[in-house]
Amino acid sequence: MKAIQLSYPGGIDALTTTELPQPPAPQAGEIQVQLHASSLNFHDLLVAKHTTAAQKGRIPLSDGAGVVTAVGAGVTEFAVGDQVVSCFFPTWQSGPGLLADFSTVPGDGIDGYAREYVNAAPTAFTLSPTGYSHAEAATLTTAGLTAWVALVEDGKLKAGDTVLLLGTGGVSIFALQLAKSMGAHVIATTSSHDKAARLKELGADHVIHYPSTPEWGNRVLELTQGRGADIVVEVGGPGTLAQSIRAARVGGHIALIGVLTGFSGDIPTRELMAKRVSVQGVLVGSRSAQQDMVRALNQQTWRPIIDRSFPLSELSKAFNYQESGQHFGKIAIEI
């Protein structure tokens, strides 16, 4: 089977295309999945750019969607022909997260889905939403589930809430679609006038052009008549957190997800305390949360936004496109 492997030292232009043996028939308690699609996340980009010596030869990509081609003895949850999508944390089945690193994450601590076939425990996958293409399903493992947990599981989103979203990456766009489908009022930020128009087309009620409005937290307060956002999907990190705190309502919730602006920085603790804002880190979610999301998506007619698709053989090109920041929504990899 065809596969991509990481090189060391790393780099998105140093990925190796190789031929590996196709997995044998699955053992008892395993399924075999023919992979058809993946999608790119910022986490995948970081791994590819900063591969460690221990990751040399690792197969990248945390997202994988495909079809079950064989089941081992004792497997009852899946059948041949089922369309499935992978779980970011294959060992986190339900309940509070007890994982704080990426040692069990496909494409990082273990081999990922930049390949044609994989044998795995059934608990490493869930069913895909009915009618989804493989590329659409592959957007759910990381970006989709992160948005779901931020808004629904942790944020307790309800109709009429105001949600603030930053940028136009996969998590933010999925969160926009999800929030609007649940009756929320959405404010989004972007640096692009063209992307602002697309955000409006997807249902954003207000869009803030942050290069011309650097104090965009105050603008959110203006748009909400001083109340602020109930939920902030914070994907920027230290460079945007202060404005997100300013934008949040008293007692609001900030889902801290991204590190796009770095890994540490100053926090306006006085305002954070005065407003009694909760800041909760989000590291994707459990398998049971993914199953909840899939059930919810089966009741919706909208689909994840895919900006562009690249064949697996052009993974380096796809990473370069991702790094350019031109994309709106997800970048898919066709396998």
Could you write a compact summary of the structure shown?
Helices cover 28% and strands 24% of the residues. It is built from 10 helices and 15 strands.
Describe the structure.
This protein has 335 residues and is α/β, with parallel strands linked by helices. 28% of the residues lie in helices and 24% in strands. It has ten helices and 15 strands. The chain has two domains: 2-139 and 304-334, Quinone Oxidoreductase, Chain A, domain 1 (Alpha-Beta Complex), CATH 3.90.180; 144-281, Rossmann fold. It has helices spanning 42-49, 134-138, 140-154, 170-181, 193-201, 216-223, 238-247, 269-274, 287-297, 315-324, and strands at residues 2-5, 16-19, 31-39, 65-71, 83-86, 117-120, 125-127, 162-166, 185-190, 206-209, 229-234, 248-256, 278-281, 306-311, 330-334. Helix 8 links the parallel strand 12 (248-256) and strand 13. Helix 3 crosses helix 4 and helix 6 packs parallel to helix 7 (238-247). The model has no long low-confidence stretch (mean pLDDT 96). Strands 3, 4, 5, 6, 7, 14 and 15 form a seven-stranded mixed β-sheet that branches. A six-stranded parallel β-sheet has the order 10-9-8-11-12-13, sandwiched between helices. It is globular and about 60 Å long.
